[in-house]
From TrEMBL:
Domain Glycosyltransferase subfamily 4-like N-terminal, chain residue ranges per copy: 12-177
Signal peptide: none
Annotated source species: Segatella oulorum
Single Gene Ontology MF annotation: glycosyltransferase activity
Record carries keyword Transferase: yes
Domain (Glycosyl transferase family): residue spans on this chain: 193-343
Record's protein name: Glycosyltransferase involved in cell wall bisynthesis
Keywords: Transferase
UniProt KW Transferase keyword: yes
SUPFAM superfamilies noted in UniProt: UDP-Glycosyltransferase/glycogen phosphorylase
Length: 368
């Protein structure tokens, strides 16, 4: 089957990492898989895809995300494929519009439980029309599927409806054993000295809540802990200024975009994901894979994966987060217990199972 994957960019992020990990595995199953990106800025993920999958055609539409001229480029491109699979909001809409002229099989993945456009009442009819253009919608968690059905309303909520059947859940997957077996980044190990390193891997955007981790650090003994942030984005300077205001800037390290995330995870002592909402965070599962304790905000997406395995703290509650961090670092048996539970949970999200499920969706759509 000829499949075209369409995404906004290959900046470092969960959906982008998932796609780069998935393409070679789908090709190994016999599919011809190409990739179209709206913003073609060179990134470590793009470089990795080129090196690992030189046979993959990479189409770059431009340098922006919402250029309506992309629709015409997509119209021509989509004629050569049996199935087009979109990721993120603008590709979802632009491919739906392009399909008015030529409609291959359309599939999309919802990578979050919510987005800001769902608060725009005027936009709801557009999204309802858009989703009707897709033969299948994959959600990365049950809560993401539930929230989408609630948002779409009548017809999509009834199990007896054909619209209800268009939505399914396929949990995100990662290469758990490769992350678990990674060697720690020695540069980071040396520089943290005797301090406990708290790591958060996430882009600096409105969805993420690095601020609460910074505030929690300010409540902890100053010389016993440090925070590492791996990622980039528009809110990075805002978070940096917060650390300066709280007088803890020397204990907050901004690592930038890293291509060695497994090694960085292994160098840390505790993994934290503080967020306002998630779909099913790849960083969540990656963080649980290394055999270290994982602590997350008790919000949709993170709650599903972490509850009863890792530790949860109330949304934006820096005081409770600080208390959990202190408990882990003062009770070695508790630290090891939570770390082992996190690893056992991560093993339930193997990427090969995820790819098999995606492949089954593709084959079912073709047969229909």
């Amino acid at each position: 089957m000829r499949i075209l994957q369409v995404i906004t960019s290959l900046e470092m992020g969960g959906a982008e990492t998932l796609l780069v990990n998935m393409i070679p595995r789908l090709q190994a199953l016999g599919h011809e898989v190409d990739l179209c990106v709206f913003n073609g800025n060179e990134t470590p993920l793009m470089q990795r895809l080129k090196e690992q999958c030189p046979q993959t055609n990479l189409f770059v539409l431009g340098t922006g995300y919402y250029n309506p001229l992309y629709i015409f480029k997509l119209m021509r491109m989509m004629r050569d494929y049996d199935l087009v699979h979109t990721h993120n909001s603008s590709p979802q809409l632009f491919v739906a519009l392009a399909s008015l002229w030529h409609k291959p099989l359309l599939c999309t993945t919802e990578h979050n439980t919510s987005n800001r456009k769902r608060n725009w009442r005027w936009y709801r009819p557009i999204e309802r029309w858009m989703y009707h253009r897709y033969q299948h919608i994959i959600c990365i968690s049950d809560i993401a599927a539930q929230k989408l059905r609630e948002y779409m309303g009548k017809g999509w909520n009834s199990p007896a409806s054909s619209l209800y059947q268009r939505i399914s859940t396929i949990n995100n997957g990662i290469d758990v054993e490769a992350i678990h077996a990674a060697e720690p980044c020695q540069e980071l190990v040396k520089t943290k000295e005797q301090r406990c390193a708290l790591l958060m891997v996430a882009a600096f955007r409105k969805q993420k809540d690095q601020d609460t981790l910074v505030r929690a650090l300010a409540l902890l003994p100053k010389t016993a802990y440090e925070v590492w942030f791996a990622g980039s984005g528009e809110r990075l300077e805002e978070v940096r200024k917060l650390s300066e205001t709280l007088g803890i800037a020397s204990y907050v390290r901004f690592l930038g975009i890293r291509t060695d995330i497994p090694q960085v995870l292994q160098a840390a002592d505790i993994i934290v994901m503080s967020s306002h909402w998630e779909g099913l965070s790849l960083s969540n599962v990656e963080g649980m894979s290394v055999g270290k304790p994982f602590i997350a905000s008790d919000v949709n997406g993170l709650h599903e994966v972490t509850k009863d395995w890792g530790l949860l703290f109330p949304h934006e509650d820096a005081k409770q987060l600080a208390a959990l961090l202190q408990q882990l670092t003062t009770d070695d048996a508790y630290y090891k217990q939570i770390a082992q539970r996190c690893y056992e949970r991560a093993k339930q999200f193997d990427i090969n199972e995820m790819v098999r499920a995606y492949n089954q969706v593709y084959l079912t759509l073709c047969k229909a």
